[in-house]
Write a structure and sequence with these properties.
With 143 residues, the chain is mostly helical. It has one domain. It is built from four helices and no strands. α1 runs antiparallel to α2, α1 packs antiparallel against α4 and α3 runs antiparallel to α4. The chain is elongated, with a radius of gyration of 16 Å. The relative contact order is 0.16.
């Protein structure tokens, strides 16, 4: 039996791990360490896929919507972060798919061109995922 109450914490760890792997992958490719870059990026892809499954299980199979309990100025700040995170999380899926496809096909010039967009957006989604978790479950926990 799954303890669904742990999934938000698991999701935050997965988002943080994805962000760390993305940053490491960027570090390695800037130093032309292609094998280490590839390892980090495959890791980020796997961790992000695990996150997506865990997120869907939690929100659609158990919890539904979690209401933000914060009040005052923090409320619009939270929603700006959440909305930008959600829109970019949706947009990043096809960008990652195309970026990975081009690398897998050996189209490295085309891979690099799209990765210049994919990397910062994917990193933003990973980092803001952790920020949303902290705001929603740690700083302003529900009920």
């Amino acid at each position: 039996m799954i303890d669904y109450t742990t999934l938000p914490h698991v999701n935050a760890v997965l988002n943080a791990s994805s962000g760390a792997l993305l940053a490491a992958g960027f570090y390695f490719i800037r130093r032309r360490r292609v094998r280490a870059h590839l390892t980090c990026m495959v890791g980020a892809l796997c961790v992000s896929a695990l996150f997506l499954v865990s997120y869907l299980v939690y929100h659609f199979g158990h919890q539904g919507v979690t209401r933000f309990a914060g009040q005052g100025l923090v409320r619009p700040v939270y929603f700006v972060i959440l909305i930008s995170h959600t829109i970019l999380a949706t947009a990043i899926v096809p960008l990652v798919a195309v970026t990975v496809w081009r690398a897998g096909r050996g189209q490295f010039a085309r891979h690099t061109r799209i990765a210049r967009w994919t990397f910062p957006l994917w990193l933003y989604v990973s980092v803001t995922g952790v920020v949303v978790y902290l705001m929603l479950y740690q700083l302003y926990p529900p009920g």
